[in-house]
Amino acid sequence: MTALTRRRFLAAASAPVALAACGNGVGSNGATRIDQRVDAAFNFMYDTLPDTQVLAGKAAGILMMPVVTEGGFFVGGAYGRGALRIDGVTVDYYSTTAASVGLQIGGQQYSHALFFMTQPALSNFRTSTGWTAGGDLEYVTPNSAGALTTDTTALLTPVVAVVFGQAGLLAGASLEGAKYNRIIP
């Protein structure tokens, strides 16, 4: 093999690795941007739903998705990125995606937090290759946040979802069927 063909071979063989590194956010400021948005979302949530601070104090970990964009015209989808924090420290970054079919027209943005109330629930989430939110989530609405923090039954729920900051023209926000995957921002 001549020197020129070796160089071409090495260039061709290393190109996918280099492109994958770019696509995974190596060398980007994506993590900083996500962390800033997550901080702002926590501040907003604690200001508008102060009782969630009690919930946060009892959680093993919290996944905050600061901006989820959802839209649909009969077929819909949603996407967002966020961070998992344990004891206030970011340990991983995640994306969420969801698809839906049905009578829907419009778009909206919202934030949500998943409070992992037990260590097994948090461990299951972190070790899964793609965790899907199911019907077993306990939802908190702005009207029920105060009641939830003192409700023993709700605090024993493995995962509590808080949806807040909705803006847009698509009614409702459900996390059921949303898939969460670990990312490198």
Task: Describe what this molecule looks like in 3D.
- It is a single chain.
- The chain is an alpha+beta fold and 185 residues long.
- It has one domain.
- It is 36% helix and 40% strand.
- It contains 6 helices and 6 strands, in the order H-H-H-E-E-H-E-E-H-H-E-E.
- Strands 1, 2, 3, 4, 5 and 6 form a 6-stranded mixed beta sheet that branches.
- A hairpin with a 2-residue loop joins strand 1 and strand 2.
- The longest helix is centred in the first third of the chain and has 21 residues.
- It is globular.
- About 9% of the residues have low confidence.
Question: Which SSEs are present, and which pair or pack?
Answer:
Elements: H1 3-23, H2 30-48, H3 52-58, E1 61-86, E2 89-116, H4 119-127, E3 131-132, E4 138-140, H5 145-150, H6 152-155, E5 159-168, E6 179-183
Parallel strand pairs: 4-5
Antiparallel strand pairs: 1-2, 2-5, 2-6, 3-6
Write a concise keyword list for the protein shown above:
globular; 40% strand
Number of strands: 6
Q: How many domains, in number, for the residues? A: 1
User: Helix count, per DSSP?
Assistant: 6
Distance between the termini: 39 Å
Question: What summary fits the major beta sheet?
Answer: 6 strands, mixed
Oligomer: single chain
Q: Using only CA atoms, what is the Rg?
A: 20 Å
